[in-house]
Amino acid sequence: MNAFLLLPTPVFTAIALVVVVVVIALVAWALQLMQAATDRREFSLMLAGCMVCSAAVGLATVMVLTFTSPVRLEARGLTAPELESAGVSLDAIVLPWDDSLFPRLGES
Predict the structure, then answer these.
(1) Contact 23, 56 (CB under 8 A)
(2) Rounded Cα gap, residues 106 and 14, in angstroms
(3) CB atoms within 10 A of CB 35
(4) Going residue by residue through the chain (108 aa), what tens digit of pLDDT does each one get?
(5) CA atoms of 41 and 21, how far apart (whole Å)
(6) Counting Cβ atoms within 10 Å, is residue 2 exposed (0-12), middle (13-18) or buried (19+)?
(7) No. of H helices and E strands in the chain?
(8) What is the pTM for the complete model shown?
(9) Residues 6 or more apart from 71 whose CB is under 8 A from it?
(10) Where are the domains of the chain?
């Protein structure tokens, strides 16, 4: 198992808070770049602000996927064991070409 999964909960909380602060700082920087682009009428600053904002969104997405992954939750004991084998069974679905349930004409 990955050592990252077995870190204590306070460490994970500290890492998550640092990442949230970084995301907020990136969004604030992107807004400043976009404001400067509007003031100076420079399109390149607007593109830079969009790139910084998309980086913040990507970082937030990776953080959410990392901290709420099924492996992470399983390592913490937060998933029910019966949910691990849950799935959809196709045994109850009758297909039109499945002739095992419907006898052919002339057969009884």
Answers:
(1) yes
(2) 73
(3) 13
(4) 455 556 667 777 888 889 899 999 999 999 999 999 989 999 998 999 999 999 999 999 988 888 777 666 566 665 555 555 556 666 666 666 666 655 555 555
(5) 30
(6) exposed
(7) 4, 0
(8) 0.58
(9) 2, 5
(10) 3-81
